[in-house]
Every structure is written in structure tokens, then in C-alpha cells.
Amino acid sequence: MFSRLNQLARHLSRPIPNYTYRSAAAVAPRPGFTSGSGAASSTSLGPIMEGKRPIHTAGCIIIGDEVLGGKTVDTNSAYFAKFCFSLGINLKRIEVIADDEEEIVETAQRMSRNYDFVVTSGGIGPTHDDITYQSIAKAFNLPLILHGEAFSRMKRLSKPHPSQPNFDWKKNSPSLEAKKRMIRLPLDESKNMDDQVIFVSDKLWVPICVVNENIHILPGVPRLFEQMLDGLKPRLLPRLNDPEGKGVYRILFSTPMAESAVAGYLTELAAKVEAKGVKVGSYPRWGKSHNTVTLVGRDKEFMDNLIPEVEQAVGGRRVLAEGEDDTDIESDKDS
């Protein structure tokens, strides 16, 4: 890990251009967007401003040496995948990268160009290896600014650690500087701050920092990640294909047949339903008596009409959850 001095020197000596967000999937704003007036309150997520682009695609960046080293199990990407599926957002990519400035810079720039909605997880703590904010600041040529409201919230809501009984918010100290690292945010002072710093709850001092309009910087702690992501949902709904957030429809079928036995039919079915935006999937289940076939799409009526045909063709039945009719078997499944 480079020292902070070396990082600062590199940042000053190697300026990079500002990358203006333009997703490959972006289209013109849909009718019905309204301009908001006034700043959002600390509990309100604020109005969706006119000109925000619709959200079709998403990407997820998990940042942390501890994940790559096997010390921590990443659950945030799985939670994000379910979150996107529930809203009908097409999650296109999940990447796990190290606490390395150049990797964060490259990945953030690329993800921001390619996808409408990007989240990062991890690397925003008080220690030297928490470099997500400074790396994303470098990626988009932004300054790191101590955010006043976040600092006020931190002082009001943070509980003193047992190892720091005499900690003083008014006294300069290494501990205070470490805490401030967590609220020095990459901000564009020429743009609306309410769109860049989002507080999802009065009970949390940690903000969601939004950079380049589509990168949302979240903590790596799963409990916080999940709470803050859920709190972001009201801001996302008006920008979805389905503003009601009904998401994608999925039908599961349990079949006792081997994948090779149903492969021909599933190939024909996939070709038949492609025009309706329906995807057909098949998943072997090692050591179990039944495999799974899925239909995923948005046309519920069309998909429901396919249920009898699929059940008959795969010799199985629709189930609400995978494993409903499982029994363990000794022989390997034919895939």
C-alpha cells in the first residue's frame, strides 16, 4: 500500500480528465419527470430532478483486500443482485477488486461509462487502507471536501469507543483526523449537493456519496450496506421502466429429468419466447433428485400461459422455491 504522501504526490502530478457520465444504455428522460424545489431534508430523499436518466443497467464494485484474501465473505453483491432483480434493473457486472488506487480508478471510470446505476462497497473507513473516496475523487478529478452536515451527524450519533473514553471532538488528534477521513467526500461544487450526498435515515450519519451522477459509494459492513441501499429505493423508482418497482417475474420448475434430456426442448422454447423478452434457464443441482428450469421476464400473462406446456415437457411441476421436492441421491446428476 502506498503511503498517503505518495498518493497525494501522484494525484497532483498526474491529473486526469473529468469523465462525463454517459451510459451506453442511457436514453432521453421520460415524460413525467418534474423539477424539485428546495433542498431535501435529512429524512427525505428529496425530489427526482428533471433530466435524470432512466435506469436500465447496473454494476457492482466490491472493494477490499480482505475479500480477495478470503478473510471476509462478500454478501453485499448477492444482496445487490436481489435488489436489482426485485426492481427490474438488469445487473450486468459484479467485480471484486483490491484496495488499490489504480484498480479503483480504472474500474470506477469503466463502470460509470457502461452502466446507469453503479454501487461500490467497502473502503470508506478511518484507516490508511480505506482509499475508496480518494481513489474515486482521482478518477473524476474531484476534490475531497469535508462535508459539514455529515460531520455534525457523526458527532451527534457516534458513540465513543470504550478504548477512547476521553475522545474530544474539539481537540485535534490523530483519532479525530482518522474519523474525518470518513466524511471527506469527492464532491463537485458546481452541482447540486443534495444529488451528491444522500442521507437515508436520521439514525445514520454515514451518507451515500454519488459521483458522476451514477456511482453510489456505500460502506462494506453488510448491515449498513443493506439498510442504505434499501433507503435509496424511493429515489430510484421514478427512473425505472416500471416506476412501481414490480421488478422481473420468475417462474421455477422442478424436474426429475437430466439436463441433457430436456436440452432440446429448452433450446426450442428459448427461441420461441425470445421475442417476448423471456429467458429460459436450466440449473443442475448436485446430489439432489431434481434439477431446476426457470423462465424470467416481464410479461406475466404470457409466461403463466406457458406453465402447463413446460411442466409436461420437462416431466415436472412449478414450484415456489427451489428444493421443495428434493431427496438426496447417491449417483451423480447427468448434466
Summarize the structure.
GO terms for molecular function: FAD diphosphatase activity. With 335 residues, this protein is an alpha/beta fold.
How would you portray this structure in words?
- The structure is a single chain.
- By secondary structure, this protein is α/β, with parallel strands linked by helices.
- It folds into 2 domains: 4-26 and 54-239, Molybdenum Cofactor Biosythetic Enzyme, Chain A, CATH 3.40.980.10; 249-319, 2-Layer Sandwich (Alpha-Beta Plaits), CATH 3.30.70.
- It is 33% helix and 17% strand.
- The chain is built from 11 helices and 12 strands.
- The strands form 3 sheets. A 6-stranded mixed β-sheet has the order 2-1-3-8-7-6, sandwiched between helices. Strands 10-11-9-12 form a 4-stranded antiparallel β-sheet.
- The longest helix is centred in the C-terminal third of the chain and has 15 residues, at 222-236.
The CATH homologous superfamily of the largest domain is named MoaB/Mog-like domain
Number of helices: 11
Largest sheet: 6 strands, mixed
CATH class of the largest domain: Alpha Beta
Roughly how many Å is the radius of gyration? 24 Å
Structural class: alpha/beta
Organism: Patellaria atrata CBS 101060
GO molecular function, one term: FAD diphosphatase activity
InterPro entries: MoaB/Mog-like_dom_sf, MoaB/Mog_dom
Domain MoaB/Mog: 59-239
Task: Indicate the topology.
Elements: H1 4-13, E1 57-63, H2 65-68, H3 76-87, E2 90-97, H4 101-114, E3 117-121, H5 132-139, E4 144-146, H6 148-157, H7 174-180, E5 184-186, E6 197-198, E7 208-211, E8 215-218, H8 222-236, E9 249-255, H9 259-273, E10 279-283, E11 291-297, H10 300-305, H11 307-314, E12 317-319
Helix pairs in contact: 3-8, 4-5
